[in-house]
Design goal:
The protein has a single domain, classed as RelE-like (YaeB-like fold, 2-Layer Sandwich), CATH 3.30.2310. Helices cover 36% and strands 30% of the residues. It has five helices and six strands. It has a six-stranded mixed β-sheet, with helices on both faces. Helix 1 packs across helix 2. It is globular. The two termini are 23 Å apart.
Length: 138
């Protein structure tokens, strides 16, 4: 059965977000709950790009490959969120797909101004976590 798991540091980042921006943290958690409870949506998380438009009163989200690392064979993606009023949420979730385990790992919760430069310390940490989880590179 497919599942979403948080690495300990990503879980701590989300916990910290609750203290900094409660609305954004709630929107992210609500979207992740919606994703994990709906197989039709869940199956799109490993698409190179997917946009989910929620029903009125629901948040929208978009998943997209972390292009620089995806081209290197890593199953890395990011989630972008909109709140119920259509405003972009200032945070992104970086996650990996492990196809053999049929699960997704949340690896980081970052500000939307985050630099996706592959030499950035957060990206380096994400790559280490990816490798430590045994997620294949293609």
């Amino acid at each position: 059965m497919t599942a979403i798991h948080f690495t300990p540091i990503a879980e701590q980042e989300l916990d910290n977000l609750w203290e900094q921006d409660e609305n954004a943290a709630a929107d992210i958690e609500t979207a992740l709950e919606e994703i994990s409870s709906n197989p039709l949506i869940f199956n799109h998380l490993s698409d190179k790009k997917y946009r989910h438009i929620g029903k009125p009163g629901q948040a929208d989200f978009e998943s997209q490959a972390f292009e620089a690392l995806y081209r290197k064979g890593l199953n890395l993606f990011r989630l972008k969120f909109w709140d119920v009023n259509g405003a972009v949420i200032n945070y992104r979730v970086i996650y990996a797909h492990h196809p053999q385990a049929d699960c997704f790992y949340i690896l980081a919760v970052v500000n939307r101004d985050f630099n996706y430069d592959i030499t950035h310390p957060i990206v380096q940490r994400v790559r280490r976590d990816y490798d430590s989880l045994g997620i294949p590179t293609y």
